Every structure is written in structure tokens, then in C-alpha cells.
Amino acid sequence: MNSVDISVLEALHEWQAEKFPLWLVTVAETFGSSPRQPGAMLALRGDGMAVGSVSGGCIEDDLVLRAQRGELPIDRCEVLTFGVTRQEAKRFKLPCGGVIRLVIEPIKNAGWVEQVMQLIRAHRLVMRTLHLDSLRVELADASRTDSFAFDDATLITVHGPRWRMLIIGAGQTSSYLAHMAQALDYQVFVCDPRKDMRETWGVPDTILMSEMPDDAVQALQVDGSTVVIALTHDPKLDDMALLEALKSPAFYVGALGSLANNAKRRERLALFDLTPEEIVRLHGPVGLDIGSRTPPEIAVSILAHLIAVRNRLPGRNLTDSATRSIQSTYMSQPGDQEVCS
Fold it and tell me: Model-level pTM?
């Protein structure tokens, strides 16, 4: 769950003490182009205060006016549709053909908000089911395979960290990466067996691990929603993590370092029990080629590439040339695979 959605729940929780009516507005469906995806949320107060986003801004303005005028329901859910006509699309500045359906949910009893927030703080996933006819809310444990759903009668949303990131090394670049990754829906684990490095780690809401990197990968039971990024600059630590991560279903595996150093790294990995296909999965150097030099710039480049990969978009990755080289070297001839395995 990203930081924007957490701020929505925090606003609802804080506003409970106020005398104004409250609403939670959720994007239920989109058709064509739309600025926000299903599940995006907006907290709205009767005096016009709003936190979150369901569009580029104009729909929020309309909802604020409706709240101030008392035109939103206070005892039932309502589904509003924006952008059906060309005039509406122009008025609300929706992209051509864009249509958004919103669930307007009056908050009569916000006890569930605190429960959801407690579960998120405990790094747990929770599924929230809203029954539109009765305003009844049910909470249950969720898995990473559970997703948003809407069928006009019930609205199901999943809250909590849906992605995991294991960072090897507790250095400065790792610190910037951890901070930024949390805003992008990652539950962050940081592994560093070096005691002096762990003692200087200070990023809140991250889980610090003291195991050796290969043991950390195994302990996390890395799955298809997990990212592993090696940032220690120490081959003895980074390579240990990569040997396990590249054999796992990890969504993304990356390592810091120059093209030359990562070429040597691939040569070392080929001496172990990794197949050529597994070695090719390594993003090394990690990140998009945006000319990054400083630790925060490197963190931005890594997260930018993760966003592109998650959204299945092309991006000029720093390791593209290295990937082509390893494919050519290890996979062009059938016999090569036997040499490297």
C-alpha cells in the first residue's frame, strides 16, 4: 500500500473527532484512459478538506463542492460516474474516452480504519470488503495474490505492503533506496552481517537482518513479489545473495557496480550451479541509465527501472549491453549451457 493511500486512512482516523461528515471515495472502475487506477482513494470531509486523489484534480474539486453543499449521501453508498459525455470529459479534464466510476462511502463507524492501520504497521496484508447496501465492513487476512475487485454490490480492497524488497548492505545508498521504496508500496528488509553497519542504520519501519545474505534470501522465502538488490560493493556478500536470488522466483534481482565489475561477477556466478538463463536475469549494473552518480540518484535510477518493469514498459537499463553480451556468450550454442552449468 503506497504512502498516498496510507495518508488517506490517517486522515480518516484523525477526522473522526470532528463534527463534520466523512466519506471515503474509491475508484471502482475505469474505462479508456484515466489518471488513477482502480483502488485509488480520497478522504473527504464535510467542510471540503480532502486527502488523496481519484483523478487529476477536477473531479476532486467537484466532490469537494458536493460535500460542502450537503449533496453527498450520509447513510448509504452511491456510485458516481464521470466522463460519460464529451462535455463531462472536457469539464473534468479526463483523457479522450476516459470514464471513472467512484464509490462514495459515508464513514459512520471508522473503527475499521484503526484496525487496518495497526495491521499495516505490523507489515501484514489485510483485505477489506465493503457491502454497499448496508455499509458493513469486513476485514480478513490477505495474500499477495489477492487484488482489488468490484461487482456493484461489494467493493474489495487490499491494504498493506504488496511488494517486498531485500537490500543487501546497510550503507548510504541503501538508506536512500529504503526511504524511497517505502513510498512505492515496498516492505523493506535490509541484510547486513556486519555489526558496525547495522549499528548506523536508521531508516524507520524497515526490518534489519543480521544473517549472511544467502541465508536471508532463503529465510524470506523469496517469491514473485520480491525484489533483491545487492549494494555492498563486497563480492563476498553480494554474490552470496545473488547465488540464491537468481535461482528463486524473485521478480527482480540487481547488483550495483560498473559494467566491467558486473561482467566479472557473471563470470564468477557461472562457476557455480547457476544456469545461463538464471545469470541473464541479473540486472547489473542495476537501474536505468539516467547518468546517476550520487547515492540518492542511484536510488532513483533503481526505483525508476522497477516502476518500468512492474508496468511492463521498455526502459534503457544500465545492464542492457551486458545482458546482450551474456546471452551471446553463454546461450548462442547448445554446448555452452553445459560448460556454464
Answer: 0.68
